[in-house]
Write a structure and sequence with these properties.
heterodimer, A: about 140 residues, mainly alpha, 3 helical TM bundles of succinate and fumarate reductases, 5 helices, about 0% strand, B: about 120 residues, 4 helices
Chain lengths: ~140, ~120
Amino acid sequence: MVTSLKEQPLKRQPVYRNIHVTDLTTYRLPPAGWVSILHRISGAAMFLLLPFTIWMFDASLTSEVSYEQFATVFSAGAAGLPGWLWKLVAFALIWAYLLHFSAGLRHLWMDATHEVGLAFGRTSALVVMILSTVVAFALGFKLFF
Amino acid sequence: MSTSFGSRRLVVGAHYGLRDWLAQRITSLLMALFTIAVVVQVLFGGRLDYYRWSAIFAPQWMKVLAFVTIVSLLYHVWVGMRDIWMDYVKPVSIRLLLDIATIAWLVGCAGWAIQVLWRL
């Protein structure tokens, strides 16, 4: 007996969509994926901390007195927050900048050379993350100790 | 650029995307140049105190480069933040509100930074 096409059960095709926020804990991103999302997060963080960055630019340059005030914020604290917390914010900015900077260079390199193979994408992503983190922690060490 | 008439007219899209994509890359290079200029001067030249730090920003070429960097930052961050809102915020009303807030935030920050720079 020939079953009609209508009676055959429909084969469930897997549907691939963008991952949901709840998938984030179980979803395993490749290194290039990590660099991509970290590029975004670091950019957004620097956007939000822009007034703090410009305050540092302002206070450190305007006069010798403001320079001293600038230094005091990181040693004695300011606005009810201890100095180490301000140092931590500065450290976050350094890390975000280095990551964003090197991830951007990776982008430019790919744009210029069309070097977009799987292997290069992977190794360059690892280099970006490791290098920026090592330099950030070296500078962070200098900042805290 | 492309023509908007005749047999060779461009019929697909406004190509704003390409222009912003290119602008984001050019501005990144300008800011990288500024970064390198600052880092090199900080690393070489002995102990860093207020006088040496402020002397870095004193020459006219450094002021021009810093100004270019501030304006580049304005455009670069606008493209980036707009991309983020477009990707994650779907309701048009909220997205528009965030776009407005982003522009206000960025123009305010750029104004402050330029004010600091031109005071030196």
